[in-house]
TrEMBL record:
The species this protein was found in: Bifidobacterium margollesii
This protein's record includes keyword Isomerase: yes
Protein name, entry field: L-xylulose 5-phosphate 3-epimerase
SUPFAM superfamilies: Xylose isomerase-like
InterPro entries in the record: Sugar_Epim/Isomerase, Xyl_isomerase-like_sf, Xyl_isomerase-like_TIM-brl
PANTHER family: ISOMERASE, L-RIBULOSE-5-PHOSPHATE 3-EPIMERASE SGBU-RELATED
Length: 286
């Protein structure tokens, strides 16, 4: 058996669904991923009704999405669940918190049916509503139930550090991991958000060493957490990648971009070359 060079790499490189040229056809979506040379794609379940409706598809239709990925020679990495901005697990509104629980459970089922091993959760206790003294505890209570369900389904949950409020640094994320204490709940660090929140990225990543399920990479500027071209922002990829090298980390690294208004395939190729060069420069790729 001949083992391809790519199979020997400890880090696989993927792309966010929203980075691709918009299409309603899953086959064409995965064909783009293959054409661009990525190993996997992360699916978006955001707060828009169009994306939330994916959670209510028939199981056979969800499994067909996974079949399209296989047919096009790519993997579905994770399910990026940002819908909790609208229906927060820690919301003071019990109706919204209950909807957030339903979305979490349905996302776990969706991930399992589509062939993904990971659901990424944004670290917001609540987003659009004012915080109260109970929002963190409500978030944790609902998360505990989600973790138990995810464990039964064999799907991991990964919390992302976010811009704004709540889980803005990975030390707070580590406290959550320690409180819930389950192998089915891990960290999904965003290198760009560490920079946006003016965190030392090496210190951030050390806080979750041994608990990193996957990683987001994006560039940012002060006051601008999205749509900053790679290399034109303040994200310290060198420091981040040196720390990952020190930790001997291996796993999936996803390039996070929003390219709906530009030449998406060109921007993806530029970003891919940028990150690949960094991976090689800092010894994460041979």
């Amino acid at each position: 058996m001949v083992i391809k060079e790519m199979d020997m790499r400890s880090i696989s490189l993927g792309i966010y669904e929203k980075a691709l040229t918009p299409t309603q056809d899953w086959g064409e979506r995965f064909a783009q991923v293959n054409r661009l040379g990525f190993d996997f794609m992360d699916i978006s379940i955001d707060e828009r009704d169009e994306r939330l409706s994916r959670l209510f598809m028939e199981p056979d239709d969800v499994r067909a999405i996974g079949s399209e990925a296989v047919r096009n020679g790519v993997m579905i990495g994770g399910v990026c669940l940002s819908a909790h901005r609208r229906y927060a697990l820690g919301s003071p509104d019990p109706v919204k918190a209950a909807k957030g629980r339903e979305i979490l459970f349905r996302s776990i089922d969706f991930a399992k049916a589509v062939g993904s091993s990971l659901v990424q959760l944004a670290g917001y206790y609540t987003f659009y509503e004012p915080h109260d003294h109970g929002c963190r505890e409500r978030f944790l209570d609902n998360l505990r139930d989600g973790v138990r369900y995810a464990a039964r389904q064999g799907v991991m949950l990964g919390i992302e550090n976010v811009d704004g409020e709540d889980v803005t640094d990975l030390r707070e994320l580590r406290r959550i991991l320690d409180e819930i204490h389950s192998p089915w709940l891990q960290a999904y660090p965003d290198v760009g958000n560490s920079a946006f929140n003016l965190r030392d990225v090496r210190d951030d990543l050390r806080a979750v060493e041994g608990h990193i399920a996957a990683i987001h990479v994006k560039d940012v500027l002060p006051g601008r957490p999205r749509k900053v071209p790679f290399g034109q922002g303040i994200a310290d990829f060198g420091a981040a990648f040196m720390e990952l090298k020190t930790q001997r980390w291996s796993g999936r690294m996803m390039i996070e971009m929003w390219n709906e208004d530009v030449d998406a395939e060109h921007e993806c190729r530029v970003a891919k070359e940028f990150i690949e060069t960094k991976l090689k420069t800092y010894g994460l790729w041979d």
